[in-house]
Design brief:
Blueprint: H1 2-19, H2 22-53, H3 55-73, E1 79-84, H4 97-112, E2 119-123, E3 129-136, H5 142-145, H6 151-160, E4 174-182
Helix pairs in contact: 2-3, 3-6
The protein binds heme C (HEC).
Heme C binds near residues 88 and 175.
Protein name: Tll0287-like domain-containing protein
């Protein structure tokens, strides 16, 4: 019961903190939009590839398209759009210690209430602002990130990502986070 009250308080106070700073609130909204665009475009490509040629080919699509779509939503020197995860597949998506801490708190929030999609805007010492929004495992992710990945898919993943850590997840688990890095003022 005590925990529930604490969470209600957190949820009630969170928007007030942002409302205090209009600049931050706008940035959160802009970041959320960019992360949703990445999510939608990637999801559409993935579904199309899975249906057309199956998961093994879809790995190629992820491998090429995921960084490509992220890059197309980024603006050099201004904003960098991407993804990260505690247990990552592509080492280029490796998180910093601070990002790990944010994702650990996201996982905790999802455990308390699976209907929330946690997000956070962090201001770094150098003035950069990093927005993160939780990525939660869906049924269509299991083929490549689940607990029992089929042998040909496993092999295709191992070829491209010999140090893959991104399997063993269940639906509803935190898989990672969208990471929108604001490198300077807009
Ligand atoms: C066809 C196989 C496949 C499916 C299905 C798939 N992924 Fe992935 N996923 C990959 C590959 C390959 C990468 C590495 C992409 C890269 O090199 O940037 C990846 C990377 C990621 C990353 C970036 C962090 C990291 O580990 O490098 C996240 C987050 C992620 N996937 C989440 C999901 C979610 C959520 C779903 C379901 C909606 C999903 N994936 C479905 C193959 C897949």
């Amino acid at each position: 019961m005590g925990k529930v009250i604490v969470w209600l308080l957190v949820l009630a106070l969170a928007p007030i903190t942002w409302a205090g700073d209009t600049g931050d609130r706008e940035r959160v909204e802009r970041s959320r939009e960019l992360s949703q665009q990445l999510q939608q475009q990637l999801g559409a490509e993935l579904m199309a590839a899975m249906q057309a040629q199956g998961p093994v080919h879809a790995i190629d699509v992820c491998n090429v398209e995921a960084p490509g779509i992220a890059a197309s939503l980024s603006t050099a020197g201004l904003v960098d759009v991407g993804r990260t995860a505690i247990r990552y597949r592509n080492p280029r998506n490796a998180p910093t210690a601070e990002q790990v801490a944010v994702m650990e708190s996201f996982a905790e929030q999802i455990k308390q209430d699976s209907s929330v999609v946690p997000e956070r805007l962090v201001t770094l010492e150098n003035g950069e602002q990093h927005y993160m929004r939780a990525i939660v495992m869906q049924p269509q992710c299991l083929a490549c990130h689940g607990q029992s990945v089929a042998e040909p898919i496993k092999q295709a993943i191992a070829e491209k990502y010999p140090n893959d850590q991104a399997t063993g997840f269940e639906v509803g688990d935190l898989r990672g986070a969208f990471l929108i890095k604001w490198l300077s003022e807009e």
